[in-house]
Amino acid sequence: MALDLIDRLAAGARVAVAAIALAGWAGTALAAADAPLSGQVTLWGGANLTSAAQIVLEGFTAKNPGVALSYEKFPFAEYPTKMRLQLSTGADTPDVMIVHDFLVDSFIKAGWLADLSSVISPDAFLAGSLGNVTADGKIYGIPGQSNPTGLWYRADVFKQLGIAAPTTFEDYTAAAQKLKDAGYFIDAFDPSAAATPFQLYLYHAGGAIFNADGSIGLGDKAVAALTTLRDMVDKGYFFSATPNQADYWSAVNGGKIVARFAASSDAAYLDTNLDPKGAGGYGNWVYADPPQFDGAAKTYLYDQSFIVVNAKSKNLPAAIAVAQYLTTNTDAALVYDSIERPGIVVRQTPTALEALKAVEGGATGWAVYGGERVNATKAKLLLAAPPGTVHKDSRWNAATDAINLILPQVFSGALSPQDAVAQMTEQLQSIQ
After folding, report:
1. What confidence tens digit (pLDDT) does each residue in 270-315 have?
2. Which residues fall within 8 angstroms of residue 117, CB to CB, at 6 or more apart?
3. Are residue 172 and residue 135 in the same domain, yes or no?
4. For 71-85, 236-250, 261-275, 342-356, which range has the lowest pLDDT when averaged over its residues?
5. CA 225 to CA 206: how far, in whole Å?
6. Region for 371 from its dihedrals, namely left if φ exceeds 0, alpha if ψ lies in -120 to 50, beta otherwise
7. Are residues 63 and 152 in the same domain?
8. Which value, to the nearest 10 degrees, does the dihedral of the CA atoms of residues 354, 358, 359, 360 take?
9. What pLDDT is recorded for position 404?
10. Are 105 and 159 in the same domain?
11. Which of 10, 110, 175, 278 lies deepest, with the highest CB count within 10 Å?
12. Which of 94, 98, 44, 39 is nearest to 73 (CA)?
């Protein structure tokens, strides 16, 4: 198995690390082979992702017994505020943080994150996956969780109706009609929570909420995506429910909803919510590439998390090594894929190319998918062609809230897609 990045750097370095002054640190402060890593490292993040990282880092502590790791876990809704409050005081802890894509730019602008440019090679990662942690030519984080868009479907129902896994959007709509005729739904939809499906359609149509330079996207692509989504709703292809809520899972386990187009992180929701004894079946769900829209990337990195290092950390060598282990180590990638512990639903794929190759070849089968190696399928998709990437920054949540307020009027007939996109653009321009 290929050495991970930290092993390669350590093997090539024969000079012991002396004192590290933040003002002069050049990003190469890694322990040499004759100066083992040691000291305390604290990791913060949302409870679920941090719990998974704690399991994965059991392999790190076995290799680095001199490093004492501690963890602080927060509910998803709380940890952004907790981290901002902590870092704004100039505190030297936490040393390492798990930060979602929509938060990281504000942390960079505040000067809270260590520059990792000297220990990160962009060529070692999926193209575009470092965009949200790059500013002024410097890299301030390492991609951890990669969630491409994908399609889940009930293979037994599709086979019974003679429907192949849709590879184009035309295939997808044809499948939706066939399923409707047979009394099934290809997905679920709630007009009051329409921002996420709209964003999926928009990005797969080649558009964007925010462009890579931070400017507002939308425009004609958004009108076309919204028109398509409205037409799908009007044709009755979607079950009326909010995805991942109780009524949604009742319909899934009752055998009514038989497919799902979403970010691949939702694989964990199916894993934990499918009823083994329900009419929906057990082991009938499979994961596949998403249907491809004309002129767009095959899939998109819709949702990412990054491992970042506190610029004030008093133990930068160990903190950086922890960040690298979680994101580039091939053994770590395989542990992330195979976590089977109560209450942990994280089974993620990395964006480091060598780690992705390890997952493609060595991922485990998931019982709820009939033994299918779901992450191997995801890894193969990501390695086959560069995925599209979604630019997110500190405006993302406010933008999503604004979009969610406007979209219901499209599906009630009160607004045309053109007028809705014009209102969205105006609202986004006012968000700082």
Report:
1. 777 888 776 666 668 888 888 988 767 888 888 889 999 999 999 9
2. 27, 137, 138, 139
3. no
4. 261-275
5. 9
6. left
7. no
8. 90
9. 95
10. no
11. 175
12. 44
For residue 20, pLDDT beyond 60? no
Say what the alpha-carbon torsion angle 291, 295, 301, 303 is, to the nearest 10 degrees: -80
Q: What is the mean pLDDT of residues 320-337?
A: 95
**413 and 336, same structural domain?**
no
Q: What letter represents residue 429's amino acid? A: Q
Q: Which two tokens stand for residue 111?
A: 């000067």
Residues 93 and 13 in one domain: yes
| Beta-bridge mates of residue 274 | none
- Digit-coded pLDDT (tens) for 148-194: 888 999 999 999 999 999 999 999 999 999 999 999 999 999 999 99
Burial of 234 (0-12, 13-18, 19+ CB in 10 A): exposed
> Which DSSP state fits 240?
E
**What's the rounded Cα separation, in Å, for the pair 380 and 375?**
8
- Per-residue buried b or exposed e for 106-125, using 16+ beta carbons within 10 Å of the residue's own CB: ebbeeebbbbbbbbbeeeeb
Could you say which of 360, 382, 409 is where a domain stops? 360
Q: Which residue type is seen at 398?
A: A
Which of the listed residues 360, 376, 405 is the one where a domain comes to its end?
Answer: 360
pTM listed for this prediction: 0.86
Considering the domain architecture, whether residues 53 and 92 belong to the same structural domain is answered as yes
96 and 112 fall within a common domain = yes
Are residues 111 and 208 located together in one domain of the fold? no
Element at 389 (helix H, strand E): strand 388-389
CATH number of the domain bearing residue 423:
3.40.190.10
What phi-psi label fits residue 159: left (phi over 0), alpha (psi between -120 and 50 degrees) or beta?
A: alpha
What are the backbone dihedrals phi and psi of residue 385, each rounded to the nearest 5 degrees, phi first?
-155, 150
d(CA 235, CA 159) in angstroms, rounded, equals 23
Strands 142-154 and 300-309, how do they pair?
antiparallel
Q: Are 427 and 406 in contact (CB under 8 A)?
A: yes
Domain that holds residue 169: 148-300+367-429
Q: What is d(CA 240, CA 151) in angstroms, rounded to the nearest whole number?
A: 19
Q: Tally the residues of the chain.
A: 432
Cis bond before residue 148 (omega within 30° of 0) = no
Tokens of 417: 């897609």
As given in the structure block, the two tokens for residue 369 are: 């998918």
The token duo for 295 is 């002129």
Q: In the chain, how many domains are there?
A: 2
Mean confidence (pLDDT) of the chain? 87
